[in-house]
Specification:
Length: about 160
């Protein structure tokens, strides 16, 4: 599979292209857009990127977008993989990952394979645990985004952080 961009900014797929190829290309384009902008200033762009990255998965995954002190992207890591209805998240491993990339801030994200992005009681609980754990090493959590099939829920917008 190949994807090309012409001078007018239009993308064209070449060769045999699967759905996974299209989603990977879209994720790559959105990530490049976020990186070009330099910092995270538009929550909509972050949600679009995470929806492309996580929205079509049939199992739960927990990702973190690590940011520096000016909210520039340092890394986007998949830290935990789960099953159809959950993923075990370990605060110790999250703190270790934050220190490894020298992060100052983070945006947490995970998907709900059911397609319903409503934060669960377990989502709220692990978010509180991670806020406290990361606070000890000087890392702020800016948001926890729950990704569904076609939409995302920001826990920060809901006042759940």
């Amino acid at each position: 599979m190949g994807i090309t961009k012409d001078r007018a900014g239009n993308y064209k797929l070449t060769g045999n292209t699967t759905e996974a190829d299209v989603l990977a290309a879209a994720e790559s384009i959105l990530k490049a857009k976020l990186e070009r902008e330099g910092d995270i200033s538009n929550p909509r762009d972050v949600s679009d990127f995470l929806r492309m990255r996580l929205g079509a998965l049939l199992h739960e995954e927990f990702h973190i977008l690590w940011l520096d002190n000016r909210h520039r992207i340092l890394s986007c890591q998949k830290l935990f993989t789960g099953t159809i209805d959950g993923a075990s998240v370990h605060p110790r491993e999250v703190v270790r990952a934050a220190l490894n990339v020298n992060a100052c801030a983070a945006i947490l994200a995970h998907n709900h394979p059911s397609g319903v992005p409503e934060p669960s009681a377990a989502d709220r609980s692990i978010t509180r645990e991670l806020v406290e754990a990361l606070k000890l090493v000087g890392v702020r959590i800016l948001d926890h985004i729950v990704v569904g099939a076609g939409s995302c829920v920001s826990m920060a917008e809901r006042g759940l952080l």
